[in-house]
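Figure S4 source data
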Amino acid sequence: MTALPDELRDLPAWTPGAGELADLELLLSGAYRPLTGFFGAIDTATVIAGGRLADGTPWPVPVTLTVPVELTKATRLVLQDPEGTPLAVLEVTEGWQDPVTGDWRLAGTPQRLRAPAYGPFHRLRRRPDELEHAPGNLLAVATREPLHRRQLGQLRQVAEKLEAKVLVLALLGGAHDESLVRALLAVQKDLPDAAEIVPVPLPVHERDVRLRSHVAAAYGATHLLVEAAEEGTAIAAVVPEPWAYDADVEVWRPVAKIEPGHVKAGLSAAELTRMLDLGEEIPGWFTPAPVAAELRRARPPRHERGVTVFFTGLSGSGKSTVARGLADALVERGGRTVSLLDGDVVRQLLSAGLTFSKQDRDLNIRRIGYVAAEVTRHGGVAICAPIAPYAATRAEVRRMVSEQGDFVLVHVSTPLAECERRDRKGLYAKARAGLIPEFTGISDPYEEPGDADLTLDTSTISPEAAVEAVLELLAAGGWIRPD
C-alpha cells in the first residue's frame, strides 16, 4: 500500500466496489458537480422519490457508499483502490442503514489524496477543469457503444446545425472498456474537427440518460445527443432525425431523402451479435473497418472464444468422471487449450486449508470461478466440476466468467440414492451418522439449478454418452467444430 501521511496511518481503510469507485472518481474530479460527497439517508430518499436532493437541487440517482457495519462508527475513513492505493479520506457526516436493502452506508465528503491510476486509457482521462472549450455550443455524445456509420452521420449533421464543437464521452464500466475506447479513437478522423474523446467511469443507472446529461454539463456541454427524448436532463437533449442506408447510392443519409424501396435500416444488436458469434464479416456499409476489427476482438467467434463448462451436482453424481472425459475428448480434437478444475484437485491445491462450512464452500467456488474466468479471458476452455450447491454462488461465478467469455452450466442430476450407493469413501454414511456436519444432500441443501444449459442423469446413461451429450451441446453452440 502506498504510504499515508503520518496523521492518517491509524485510520480504518475500505475498498469500495467498482461502481462506488467510479462515483468516487467523479466526485473528486468535479464531473458530478454540484455534488461534493456521498449521500445520507434523507438525500437518498428524496432523490429516489423525486429526482432532487433535500435542498431542491436536481439530481437523478443516489450516490451512496456501502461499508461493513463495523465501519459505520468511523469519523474518518481512507478510501483505496483494489491494489490498496489510498485515493481519498472520507470525512464522515452520517452512518445509516438502507431501509430497503439493509446495507450499511456512510455519508460524507471525500478529500483527495491522489488521482486514481487504475483502469484503461488513463492518459486520456481528463477532469472537467482540464478541458478548454471555445465559446459557443458544445455537443456531447455519451456512449457505451462504438459509433457506427449511422451515428457518425447523425452526429455530423446535428453538430453542423448547432454550429457546435463535439465532445465524445466514452462511458467505462462494461466488459470491454478497452475495445470501446479503441473503437472511438479509430473513428476520430470521421468526427467534426477538434472533437475530443474523454473516457469517463460512469456506473449504469436506471435514469441513465439524465445522469449522462449532468456529467456532460460538468464537462461544459450545452447539448447532449440522445436516441430518444427524455425529461429532466441537465442540458438540452437533441434527438437526431432518422437515418438509414441508401442502397441505391450506397451512403447513409436522412430517411426522408431516400427513395422508397432503397432503404436499409442497418443491423440490429441481435443480428450483429449473431454475425460476430458465427465469425461472419461485418459489412463495411454498417461500420468502418477499424470498428469492425474492435468488435471482433471484443467478441471473437465462438469457436475461438473462451468458455467455461461448469458441472454441478451431488457428491458421487459422476460429474468428475464426465468432466475428465470431456477434457480428454477436447484435447484429442485439438485446437483449444483445456484446463480441468476438478473439485478434489482444487481442494488440495487452490483451496487448501478451507473447511466445509458454507462460507468456505462459497469461497472455494469463487476461487474456482476466478481461475475459470482467467482461463476464459485468454481464449481457453475451463472445465469445472465442484458440487457448487448454492444457486447464488453459481450465479456469481456465471457473472464473473461472462465478463470474459461464455459460460455453460451442466447439472449432473443423478439421484441421491444412486450417489449414496456409489460412495466408495463412506462420506454419506458418516454424514448420516452425524460425523460430517453440513454435508450436501444430507444435512445441508443442494439447490438444483433452474438455469442449466444441459441436465444429465448418469444413473440412466453411460459416462461416454454423457460426454457425447456435452460435446453435442458445445458443437451446437459453436464453441467447437462438429466432427
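Figure S5 source data
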Amino acid sequence: MSDRCGLHIGIDGGGSSTTGVLCLLRRIPGSIIPLISVLRRSTSGPANWLGSVDSNLRMTNSLRKALKPLLQHADRPLTSVTVALAGLGLKGRSRAAKQTLKDLVGDAANCRVISDTWAAHGAGGAFADGVTVISGTGSVAVTRQAGRWLSVGGHGFILGDEGSGFWIGQQGLQAAVRADEGRGPATVLMETAKQHFNLHSLKQLPAKIHSAEHAVAVGRISGFCPLVLSAADDENDAVARKIVKRAGYHLAELAVTLAKRAVRRGAEKDQLSIFAVGGVWQGSVLLWEELKKHFCQCGYCGAEIASPIYSPAEGAVLATYLADKEFTAG
C-alpha cells in the first residue's frame, strides 16, 4: 500500500487566470510519480499582466487570492508550496512572488517559484523523455534532456505566440474585419464577433479592443479563440478552418524543433511522447488532427501524442516533489 508524503500546494499563474490546488501526495511502491489526491481547487485573475506599470502588484494580488483559500483549507502542516509563473524573466516578478510566499507561508513549508513551462511539462507526465507543446494565452514548447531544460517559442504576443489562444483569436477577428470591409471571404466570424463583443457593427470593434490596457486587450482577444475553434469544427467555416490549420502547423513546428534536439541528445525517435497542454487544445478536434499530420510529415509518425495527465497546477506540485531527481527542475 502507498504511504503518505504530505500536503502540497501548486499554483499555475498564466495570462488568462491563476489556478491552484491543495493536494495530498502518496508514494506508490515501484513508481516515481506519486498518487495525487486533490483536496481543494482555487481560481483568481491573471498573473501575467502584460504592459501594465503595476503588473507585479497585480500578479501578487492574484497569487494571494488563489493561495488564501488553499492555506485556510489545509488541516495539517504543508510540505511544499510551488508557484509556477508565466513571464518569470520579467523584471522583479520572481522577487515579488517569493515575497508573497514569505508573507503568507513563511518558513512553514518548502516554497519555490518556477517557470510555468516546467509545471506544464510536469502536467504531461513528461519529466524524462518527451516534449510538451503548450497553447494557452501564449504558446511554447519545452523538454528536459540530459539534465537541461530546452524551449522554443514563448516570446509573447508581439514577437511570437503563433498557434496560441491569443493568435487564434487575433486571426479570427482580423478575418471578421476583412470580410466586413469586403477585403476577405465571408465568414460566420463576422456575426460571431458582433455577438461576442455586443456590437451593432464591427466598425465598433477597434474602440472595444484598443481602449483597453494591454493585458485586458490580450484577454479579450484570447477569449475569442474558442469561438474560432467552434466555427471551424462545428460550423465547418472555411475561414475558421484555415486559421485552425495554420495554428496546428505552428504548434507542430515548435514540437518538431524540440523533438529533433531531443533525438540529437539521445532520445529514441519512435519512443518520444508529445504532450499537448493548455486550454486551446481542449476546444478543437481539427487542431489535434493538424498537429498529428504535420508531426508525421516530419518523420515522427511513431511518436505518441497525448493529453496531459495532470493540470499545470498539479504539475507545479510534482516539479517540487521530484526536484531531487535528475529529470526535474533542480
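The radius of gyration is 20 Å. The chain has two domains: 3-125+309-321, 126-307.
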